[in-house]
Amino acid sequence: MARIELTNVQKFFGAVQVLRDVNLVIEDGEFVVMLGQSGCGKTTTLRAIAGLETITSGTITIDGKEVQNLKAADRDIAFVFQSFSLYPHMTVEENIAFPLRAVRSRQAEREAEVKEVARFLGIEQLLPRRPSALSGGDMQRVAIGRALVRRPKALLMDEPIGALDAKLREQMRAEIKRLHIARESTSVYVTHDQVEAMSLADRIVVMHDGLLQQVGAPEEVYLRPANLFVAQFVGSPVMNVADVTVESEGTDALLRIGGANGFRVPSETVSHLNGSPAKLGIRPEAVMLSHDAKDGYIETETTNVEPLGSHDIVDVRVGDETLRARCESGFTGGEGQKLWVALDPHRAHFFDAASGNSLRRSA
Amino acid sequence: MAEVKTKGEVVLNRVAIVAVVVALIVMLTPIYWIASTAFKPRSLATTVPPTVMFEPTLTPFAKLFTKRSQLRQPVEEDVYEAAPWWEKLIYDDGEQVVKNRKTGAITSSGYWDRYKNSLIVSIISTFLAVSMGTLTAYGFSRFKVKGEQDWLFFILSTRMLPPVVVAIPMFLMYRTVGLHDTHLGLIILYTAFNLSFAVWIMKGFVDEIPREYEEAALVDGYTRLQAFWKIVLPEALTGIAATAVFCFIIAWNEYAFALMMTSRNAQTAPPYIPSQVGSGLPDWSVIAAGAFLFLLPVAIFTFLLRNHLLRGMSFGAIRK
Ligand SMILES: Nc1ncnc2c1ncn2[C@@H]1O[C@H](COP(=O)(O)OP(=O)(O)O)[C@@H](O)[C@H]1O
Ligand SMILES: [Mg+2]
Fold it and tell me: How many CA atoms lie within 13 A of B17 on its CB side?
């Protein structure tokens, strides 16, 4: 097990810079998930750690030892590819034993270790089969088995369950978590699926355009997004974002969006805003709906209702803006209904309109 | 594959089957002709109309491997009785095997030597072309090569000149450096000739093998060479088999260069067989026997590799 540290890592493909100054510390035994859109450089980062890609500048250390100039074979790290890349000409058993044969271990030892890993992953009965005869989930188990069998310092996984269907993904997610807890392996996991990231990670690394946007525990990334990108990337349905103007009205403040009447909020919740153009971000669960007029609520109309079973997502008009609200299922009858809406000021986020950075209340 | 077919398609299907059968008959008839003539006695080889039913004999093969002369007078009975079965066949046909006066050793015809030459030259040049082609294709497929497209085009362009154009310069060069009528000379020639083809075909196959296979091996502690040997080669086996068959067939059947670049020592079978037509009255069943034996290696080689070939012919297009 190992501690991995990336310092000022940059990577160019020709003239295109794919990684811009990546700094990240992955602690021993930690499960770190790199989350970001396709093309943001997640795979490149992972391949750089594994030694499959040389970095243009910066350093990568594993347990304090610089490895950026070491060959992949000498870094003692395992990699699970999105395509699983099981060797078609070998049986499952041979596939799992393959990394052990690189170090010329004895046959009996090899067999014992393959058995042990197979038992741990519940794939013993698949050992004599060929990869082509496996289901997607089993292929993935075998791929993980092959990665784990030689007890590497760290386990890198590149969208390992991205190719599976939704139900299986959920199941495999739980298995990977169980595996991590049992083995305490330092793991770096890449995904573009925020649910996967939230459910698996000790810490999430949100990446965009070759830059780390935020590094933090799942709750932190969700509750205190560092910027607009993170705010909109993490969470489903997506956070509502609108240009906002803040006016003071007596002891309270008025948040005006879309040219509508404005939401009355306690002024201390917006006291940190300095008056420069800002954007308001509010998650659907912090948009409150009411059937009757109440203090602080403004009148509105539903424009769309998505019944999702456990809850509904209701779109309401506020001036020219649409806010999405999460409410209990069956709360409204349908479109065109009159409702009252308010915002939970303690769960409102403000962002600098120009930079997109969070304007956070100083604690 | 049980999709709905319209009446028109059903009819078209039947027509296609008939066409295939006709084409098959047209193509297989010459092979049948050679094979059957190889087992006919000389007297039946050229009858009009052709003899279809006959008692097969091995006489043409006995004659093929020996040097013979006409019998002036009937052979003495005790000599005939003492002769092995194949010599009897030759006596029966009114000929005798030429023997060394002193030792009595039989003189063999040049066929077996030519056949051996064909095997040596074809097998070695195929092995060289396929192994060098696979390595080159791997390099082009996996590494950034400066001017890759230009190199590949250059490699292909070596096949664009008709062989006749280079034949004379090649002949003069070979004579100067002493490669004329040597096995090495033909091997180099056929290897060079097949290499461009091997590179191009193998590049297609290697491109189809996901890089992740090797990368997984690299991460797991193997060197690139080991990864190539343990992962890429087994995965490319289908392509290698297909390429080897093509290269072997081209080398085995090559006539023009073999005719020009060899005369005795290294002569292969293709120029030898027709050269026998001209010496005396052509014995068509002996020539057919020579052609028939010549046909066998390609047929056997192709048959052994047929499973690989069927998959390989699609040039990797439908592998999973
Ligand atoms: N070998 C390569 N050559 C050139 N560009 C590449 C190469 N690999 C990746 N890229 C580019 O780098 C960017 C990041 O790729 P990648 O790390 O695979 O993103 P992600 O895994 O986050 O989807 C993409 O724009 C991609 O096109
Ligand atoms: Mg990727």
Answer: 5
Residue A362 is predicted with a pLDDT of: 62
Interhelix angle B111-142/B183-208, rounded to 10 degrees, is: 40
Average pLDDT, chain B: 89
| CATH H-level superfamily of B111-313 | MetI-like (1.10.3720.10)
Domains of chain B by residue range: 2-37, 66-97, 111-313
Domains and CATH numbers, chain A: 4-233 (3.40.50.300), 240-352 (2.40.50.140)
For a pocket test of ligand 1, which of A10, A12, A18 has the largest count of ligand atoms closer than 8 A to its C-beta? A18
Q: Which helix (H) or strand (E) holds A166?
A: helix A166-183
* Residue percentage of chain B with pLDDT more than 90: 59
Residues in chain A: 363
User: DSSP class of residue B160?
Assistant: T
Give yes or no for a contact between A207 and A42, defined as CB atoms under 8 angstroms apart. yes
Alpha helices in B143-182 (DSSP H): 148-157, 163-177
Contact B217 A98 (CB under 8 A): yes
- Which residues, in sequence order, are CB contacts of A299 under 8 Å at separation 6+? A293, A338, A339, A340
**By CB neighbour count within 10 A (0-12 exposed, 13-18 middle, 19+ buried), where does B279 fall?**
exposed
- With contacts defined as CB-CB under 8 Å, which chain A residues touch B218? 51-52, 71-73
Ligand closest in space to the Cα of A12:
1
Q: How many CA atoms lie within 13 A of B280 on its CB side?
A: 8
Structure tokens at B282: 């052509």
- For B220, the closest of A83, A102, A132 (CB atoms) is A102
Asked whether the predicted pLDDT for residue B318 surpasses 60, the reply is: no
What is the number of residues in chain B?
320
Asked whether A244 and A255 are in contact (CB, 8 A), the reply is yes
> Is there a cis peptide before residue A237, judged by omega within 30 degrees of 0?
yes
Decide: A314 and A289 in contact? Cβ < 8 Å.
yes
CA of A269 to the centre of ligand 1 (A): 42
The pLDDT of residue B190 is 95
The answer to whether the Cβ–Cβ distance between A83 and B212 falls below 8 Å is yes
Q: How far, in Å, CA of B269 to CA of B274, rounded?
A: 9
pLDDT, one tens digit for every residue, chain A (363 residues): 799 999 999 999 999 999 999 999 999 999 999 999 999 999 999 999 999 999 999 999 999 999 999 999 999 999 999 888 899 999 999 999 999 999 877 899 999 999 999 998 999 999 999 999 999 889 999 999 999 998 899 999 999 998 888 898 999 999 999 999 998 889 999 999 999 999 999 999 999 999 999 999 999 999 999 999 999 999 989 999 999 999 888 888 889 988 777 898 888 888 888 778 899 999 999 999 999 998 889 999 999 999 999 999 999 999 899 999 999 999 988 888 999 999 999 999 999 999 999 998 765
Instruction: Give me A201's structure tokens.
Output: 């990670």
**DSSP character for B303?**
H
- Closest of A61, A22, A41 to residue A186, by C-alpha: A61
Chain B residues within an 8 Å CB radius of A104: none
Cβ contact (<8 Å) for A98 and B234?
no
Tell me the whole-structure pTM to 2 decimals: 0.82
The candidate with the shortest Cα–Cα distance to B284, out of B26, B32, B40, B107, is B40
